[in-house]
Amino acid sequence: MTTTLITGTTKGLGLETARRLVAAGHTVWAAARDPERGRATAEEVGARFVELDVTDDASVTAAAEAVAAAGGLDVLVNNAGIEGRTADNGIVGARDLTGPEMLRMLDTNVVGQVRVLHAFLPLLERSDAPVVVNVSSGLASLTLATLHGLPTHGYPGVAYPVSKAAVNMLTVRYANAFPGMRINAVEPGFTRTDLNGNTGTQTVEEGAVAIVRMAQLAPDGPTGTYTSQHGTLPW
User: Angle CA(167)–CA(168)–CA(173) in degrees, nearest 5?
Assistant: First the structure.
């Protein structure tokens, strides 16, 4: 049976991905930094709970030890992330972005994935079919950001696209370093979740499609790619 860990599972895409993969027969670890909400999520979808805060090294290490003690890991879904909206649900633009806000974004969205990858790589290396899915964004595409008229060009924020562009590069570098693993970046689409103040245009059911598909790759599947549910995206 495939064992999968998903970060950021208490709501949104993480919750829906956990639900779908449990239904597909995976043993799912629902990882979350809030124990009360995390346990409720795990119970709701039929998963196991493990406490994990991607911004805390000790928390990530402890989570990896717990999963290792229970038998190992085959699939890792790096889903936890933030967009960095203001109190009134606005997007912080280039004029107002500060160093501390940029650091907070990178620590969660980029360094957080590195922490999790570092801690769980030894478990994945022992799997017969290791898979990593890094949840990215269409806003990470440098190509699409330069095409006038597209939402990716008009998006006013800086920190979030920069962080997800870094996630894409992490994906390529880790895929190159570990050719025996399937490591891919996924754009779920503009999904209606708390991350974007519920301004998205598609449901979590639609947004989870690409994540769930890439989490179920066979050992001969693609690696080092950047895709959405509609196909390959330009870097």
Answer: 95
